[in-house]
């Protein structure tokens, strides 16, 4: 089943939105495969946003995700990557649809609450950055048969 990497960014943790956002992914029908609270260091932050190196928002974005602990998660399910991006909403909260996470809780592109992989290839890269293989757990769950 397709996996995606989701990160609850520092503002989500500081504003007490962790439970509410996790609930959105759970209720959508995704299955949690990995989760931890971590303090991102500079090396990890720069690796995460490597594709944006050289852009004006690179350094502020790196500094932002190091500014407080974040919740790193792996969720799996049918079309997990695209489906999670839809739940999150557009990068700029002002353009995000009203019911999306960024549409509901975000105001500024530089503090946009949540990260989600933009492709299956990115998901594989990001999961490997944040998790050791043994930290991703494949387990049977009640309801699996209703969601595949
Ligand atoms: P993310 O990687 O965080 O899930 O966001 P995304 O795919 O929707 O957007 P992306 O283009 O990958 O940008 C990564 C993060 O950089 C910050 N950003 N700031 N000031 C700006 O114009 C600007 N553009 C991007 C955002 O925090 C964005 O989430
Ligand atoms: Mg991105």
From TrEMBL:
EC numbers on record: 2.7.4.6
UniProt-listed GO biological process terms: CTP biosynthetic process; GTP biosynthetic process; UTP biosynthetic process
EC primary class: transferase
Residue numbers binding ATP: 9, 57, 85, 91, 102, 112
UniProt keyword list: ATP-binding, Cytoplasm, Kinase, Magnesium, Metal-binding, Nucleotide metabolism, Nucleotide-binding, Phosphoprotein, Transferase
Gene3D superfamilies according to UniProt: Nucleoside diphosphate kinase-like domain
Domain of life: Bacteria
List of catalytic residues: 115
Gene Ontology CC terms, in alphabetical order: cytoplasm
Localization in the cell: Cytoplasm
Record GO terms (molecular function): ATP binding; metal ion binding; nucleoside diphosphate kinase activity
Names of the cofactor(s): Mg(2+)
Protein purpose: (Microbial infection) Catalyzes the phosphorylation of dZDP to dZTP, when the bacterium is infected by a phage that produces the substrate for the synthesis of dZTP (2- amino-2'-deoxyadenosine 5'-triphosphate), which is then used by the phage as a DNA polymerase substrate.
Similarity comment: family membership: Belongs to the NDK family.
Subunit structure of this chain's protein: Homotetramer.
Name recorded for this polypeptide: Nucleoside diphosphate kinase
Gene name tied to this protein: ndk
